[in-house]
Q: What sequence folds into this?
């Protein structure tokens, strides 16, 4: 499948590498491909400079948000939460219309330090904001409740854990569930329509507390029932 | 141990019954014991009229919030979230001073229907509000992330799941962890100080979505790591 991954950070890199390894044709989207290729990495070892990462993933393309979105049959939003609506605006409503738009963004406001807060919550969610801004896209919220490495390698935990889908379009959720299954996820719960993104996005503060308490990002929620 | 359980709803009934069965001496606290004894039950079969429940649990006492709190070495807040600060005010700061005050309340605002929202979140929590209002109490937030029946019978799920403690006093958290262990919980994560109640309380919207999606309240979160 032709998949656009918007965002070239930790989440985008993990998703693009995994999707490509699974045989999908992946083009990543960014504001300015030239700037992305010359940007230095962050302190995070999971987030090397894109140019370096790109050498090891030569089969993954890099284009503008608009060109990537035009290419993808499925578009995966892996941008930072505060940048998701602007980035998707650059991708262009016409390039998203009718397509499955997977949203893995988190509405974190890190401006006041740790712990970050959420810039939308409880009575609305970033998933809903995106669906409202792009009504012709078929938005599915997923994978916003776990770390990038675990998103695409759930087996590292050595035990089954749970991921979630929320969205208004059943067919879109089925497409996303298939991709999650390809990633190795064996327990996918359909939470209902896109308003359920309020639930998944509001797990972020707990995730951050758990990261702090456990001293690792290698964990995930499982719904025991 | 002498334990006061404040609140005579579903949560209070389950906690009091379990603690009593485990051999603790339990007095439940309410505004007006006479009114509680004559009140009819709710539609919830887990929430029979108190007079009827009381016949089957004659060893559990019923007193005013203040008398119950004065009796308890440990005080367990099982009142509804919007009523917790008023109820604890009636219990009295002097009756809470120095004691372990276990807080299982949830800051749900049900005034606008389903799904309810949270009347405090993200930058504050009900657990913190209670700790600030009663600075001499040693508040521990716990069991606000699962249904009453599963709180006291975790074995019904047939598989280990996780509960959490958050509070400023390590000894108080150890006391609570011992009680949770008596209940049958085998995985208790210490999330840190009382500000971590923001994390547990913000899981409520997800819990409600899961209840809706799964069609049951018999589930719990497990942290797979």
A:
């Amino acid at each position: 499948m032709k998949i656009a991954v918007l965002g070239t950070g930790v989440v985008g890199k993990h998703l693009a590498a995994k999707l490509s390894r699974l045989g999908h044709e992946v083009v990543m989207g960014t504001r300015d491909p030239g700037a992305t290729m010359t940007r230095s990495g962050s302190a995070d070892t999971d987030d090397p400079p894109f140019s370096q990462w790109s050498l090891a993933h030569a089969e993954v393309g890099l284009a503008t948000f608009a060109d990537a979105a035009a290419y993808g049959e499925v578009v995966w939003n892996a941008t930072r939460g505060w940048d998701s609506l602007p980035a998707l605006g650059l991708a262009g409503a016409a390039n998203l219309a009718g397509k499955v738009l997977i949203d893995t963004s988190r509405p974190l406001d890190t401006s006041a330090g740790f712990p970050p807060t959420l810039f939308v919550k409880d009575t609305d969610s970033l998933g809903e904001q995106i669906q409202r801004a792009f009504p012709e896209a078929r938005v599915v919220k997923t994978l916003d409740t776990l770390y990038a490495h675990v998103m695409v390698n759930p087996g590292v935990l050595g035990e089954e854990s749970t991921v979630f889908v929320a969205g208004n379009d059943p067919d879109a959720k089925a497409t996303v569930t298939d991709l999650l299954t390809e990633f190795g996820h064996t327990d996918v719960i359909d939470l209902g329509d896109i308003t359920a993104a309020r639930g998944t996005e509001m797990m972020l503060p707990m995730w951050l507390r758990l990261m702090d308490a456990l001293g690792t990002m290698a964990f995930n929620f499982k719904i025991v029932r």
